[in-house]
Each structure stands twice: as C-alpha cells, then as structure tokens.
User: What shape does this take?
Amino acid sequence: MEPPTGFSASLLSFIRFLPFFIGLLLLGTTKGILFCPLICLIIATGNTAIILGLWIVHAVWTYYCVVRAKQFGPILKLVIGLCVLPVLLVVYPIVGILGSIVGGAAYGFLSPIFATLEAVEEGKDDKFYHCFIDGTWSTVEKSCMVVRDVNDVCFHSYFSVMDDLRQKGPPNAKYYEIRLLYIPGALIAAVIGIIVDLPIISFVALCKGPYMLFKGWHRLFHDLVGREGPFLETICVPFAGLAILLWPLAVAGAILASMLTSFFLGAYAGIVAYQESSFLFGLSYVVAALAIYDEYSNDILDMPEGSCFPRPQFRKEVDTSQRTSNSNSVLRPSSFRKAPSRTSSMKNNNIAELKSFELLDALFKECFRVGEKLVSEGIITRKDIKEANSGNGSRVISIGLPAYCLVQGLLRSAKLNSVGDETELTTSNRPRETFFDWFVNPLLIIKEQIKAENLSVSEEDYLCKLVLLSGDADRLKNSSVGPAPESEVKRAELEALARRLQGITKSMSRFPTFKRRFDDLVRSLSDDLTEIHGGPIMTRSKSAFARLISLKSFKGTRANGSAQGSQHVAKDLENS
Assistant: This one.
C-alpha cells in the first residue's frame, strides 16, 4: 500500500492511526508486564546456572591452555596468568549474570510489544487473534533458545577456541613474546596520547554537536513531510516522531561516546609504539589520531572531506591501496562518495536487506538437502552420525558438510554472472553487520581464486570431496571421485583452498546458534540413515524437520533433487 502523499494527507493518516496504535501499544505493554518476570527468570536463572556451574572448569582449563599454548612465550604467559586472566575470571561472571538479568527483563518486556505491532502487518490472517497471541508463548520459547545458545557457547565454542589455542603452533615458527625493552616507551607514548587526544577530540566533538543536532532534525522533519525513511510505514510514525523528540539525547550520547573513545584512541599510541618498536611512531600516531577522528566525524555528518589536522605516517609498512590524498577521506567507503537517491531507494527498491541469521538458516537448509543426498549415496556413513552425536563430534558433518555446500556455491558463483532473483546475495541486500563481513569477505576472495584457477570438472570434484572428507586419504580413495590432479602444484593449491574453507566453517561453527541448528541437522540425517539401512524404522522427528524447513530463509525456488551442488548458495555468494 502506497503511503499518502502531501503534508495534509500524511497528518490526517497519522491522526486516524494514532488511537489504533495506542490501543496496540497498551495491549503489547500489558503482555510485556505479564511476561517480563517469567522471561527474566528463565534467562537469568538458566544463564546464571551455566556461568557459575562452569566457572571453575573454565578457570582451570583456561590456565592450562595458556600454559600449554605454543604461540605464547614464557614472559607473555606469566603476564597473562598474573594480570589478565584474574581480571577476566572475576569480571566474566559479574557481567554475564547482570547482562542476563537486564537483557532478560528487556527482552521479556519489549518482545510482546513488537510482536503485537507486527501482528497487524499486511498479509496476515486473523489479525485480531494474533494481536493477543503473538509474543506470548513464542517469547517463552525464544528465551529457552537463548539459554540453550549460551550453553552451547560455554560448552562447544569455548572448548573449540581453547583447543585451537593449545594445539596450534606459532606462525612463522616464532611465538608471541613481550619485548620488555619497548614497554617503557610504549607507556610514555600512551600517556602522551591520552593527555593530547582526550581534550582536543572532546573539543572537536562539542563543536560538531550543534551541527549534528540541527542536521538530524532537518533530515527527520524532511522525512516526516515527504513520508520517507522511518516515516514510510504508518506503524513506524509514532516511533519516528519520538525519535525527533529524543534526538538531542542521541546527540549528547554521541558527544559523550566521543569523549570516552578519545581515551582509548589516545592510549592506542602505546600499542603503535610497541608494535613498530619506535617511540617516534607512537608520537606520530598521537597527531594522526586527531585527523582520523576528524575525518571520520566528517564522514558521519556528511561534512566536507579532509581534516585540518596533519596526518603523519605512523607505520613502517603502509598499504598503498588504502592511502588517499589529503583531500580524500581514508575512512569513507566508496558507497558514501555518491549518495544514492533516498526517494528512489525507499520507494522503488523492493529488495529486502538480508540478515545474517537468514543466511545461516539457508546454509543449513542446503546442508539438509545435500546431506540427504550424500546419505543415500553412502558417502556419509553411520560412523559419521555416531561421531556427530558423540561429544567429540564429526568433522565430516560438522565441518565438512557446511564447507561442501559453500564450495559448491563458490564454484557456481565463479562460473555464473547472472542477474539472479530475490535469493541472490548482492551488495544491495547483503547484511550490514561487520560480524558478517568477517566470514563472507574471505569466501569472496576464495571465489576469485577459484575463478582464476579455471578448474576442470575432475578438479572441482576432487576439491569438493577434499573439503567434505577433511583430507582423509582412505575415504578419498574409496569414494567415487576420480584421482587427484597429477600436478603437485595444482594439488597443493586445492588442498590449501580446502583448508581455508574448513577453517572458515570451523569459525562459523562457534557462532551461538550454529550448534542448535547442527543438532537438528544430525537428527534428521540419522533418521534418513535408519530408513535406508532398514531395522526399526524411526519416525522422523517432525520438530527437527519442521525447524529446518520453516526457518526464515530465502524466498527462492525449492530444490528439485538434482545431483548437482548447492541450490542457492552459489547465487548467495554472487557479489554484484
């Protein structure tokens, strides 16, 4: 439905909607007040029990892994054990418990409110019923999921990280060590950085505060009149109007945040002096930090590029591709240099921005589809299922299967340059979280490497099976894939790509919700294996299957069961 045009029509629509909105808000608030104590109790009690119950185990195992770590030198281990770990082990339970209480109360109160407002969206049936039901039992279920995810992080993710710390050797055969000779100079540089940067950055923030205040008001009022931005949807108008009233508080918070950040920005001069083994480079950073903040704030406020502060070089080795002239902002992405039309982007662009969880859901749906195929072909065996259900886990399923789906997506993405459909991941709809970039950017680099390699069909099959079977020579030999490439260089390149993909997937496996989705996948594959090999036919866990199918994911066409690789993961990684 198109929003009303014109100030009078917009104002009339707002007045008509206001009583309806107030009624929904009161209903949602009532549900929030009723469910807030229960949700807070579930999250706070569950997380507190996990944190306190595992605190001694975490403390002992952390010290053990630090002592046995091959990447740390003896002096660094001593400093970490005496200065860092005691502070972390004391702060960790306090922050975790307080965060669970506050987060549980906030989630228990706000989730029913937002669910009530979302119940009247277009396309939903029986809106009156959903206004009362939505946000009640679903909030309880999600609160239990939060506790389960915290449990997975404390058990699975923590021990996975600690195992890597304990087992991995030092890079370049040199372990990390503290160089005592440069510590005094680093401390002096940090103190000078705080003394210089803190007052100057605070002054710059105070000077730019009024500009931020009036520019923000101008933009919000412009959106209100033109029904753009946060005022596009009628249901968001009251919240956007509240944003106009509370904008001065946001400006004050930004100024205080700049003042607080300036402390750490100045103290970073000590790290620069230590890393570069030069006190002069630390002093250079003290001056350059002023220009960095000035340029960054200019980018945020859409002010003229550049800075009135000098920016001396504070690194011995500088990436020339990252450098720009003094007239260009270093921190401004290319997308900022030409701002898109706000009207056209809001009204004519129907591409919805994807979320990281949606992409993770899509990956597991593809793992489920491909996993069923591999089970039917006998590539995934009963031993793999048993290992996945055990405490040790199975590298073939937990690491190999997701990496197998990713590599097939990368192979197809490297071959195709299609425009794609609504399931395609592009720069227009990709998630904006920095956390997402940590995973997708390395995959895009691997895609370009695969494109440059120009692999043959047999080499592609070998790479896929190499990724899936985790480099198991016996299983690779017994599988239906052809022999390894004759060229040692090509074989080494494929093995390096496989190791990188497995490393990325292993990092993804530490994501808080990964373990929960993985358990559902294992149960479904276990049921498939039982049906194929006969014996007592187990009824497929409807809850596990339904969760995999009903997860919010891409709206694209479903797989037709072909024997080719991934369904949509290929297009997912196509970057326009």
